[in-house]
Write a structure and sequence with these properties.
Elements (H helix, E strand, L loop, with lengths): L1 E2 L5 E2 L7 H17 L26 E5 L5 E3 L2 E3 L1 H13 L5 E6 L5 H13 L4 E4 L7
Parallel strand pairs: 3-6, 6-7
Antiparallel strand pairs: 1-2, 3-4, 4-5
Length: about 140
Amino acid sequence: MNAGSNGSRRYMAQINVTPLVDVMLVLLIIFMVTAPMMTSGIDVNLPKVEAASVSSQEEPLVVTIAKDGRIFIADRPFERFEIRTQLEILNAAKVSRLVLLRADETIPYGAVLAAMAEIRKAGVEKIGMMTEPPEK
């Protein structure tokens, strides 16, 4: 507020946007730094093997089996009996024809095969297994 020469008070009609710009720049930097770390929210120790990479034009759908046996489709948890239904819905909507299976290396082989069987029953033709390259 400014006091005029005659003692009357006037309000300033200007908004100071400098603090707003500063806050937005800080948020932008925070999101730029943290975004690459948020690629997959489920912690899985993939087996380390030498394998050829899968090349595809489309974005694959990722099915993950966590250490505790929980199953995730695109980072959403599902029960084992729900996998087939969800994948059939996604397959009908033509979301993705390629499914990549991420399974922790400590998961029993039978559990991985059971998940693969459910994926196949859902009508998915292309299934890939995600691994990490061995350390040299």
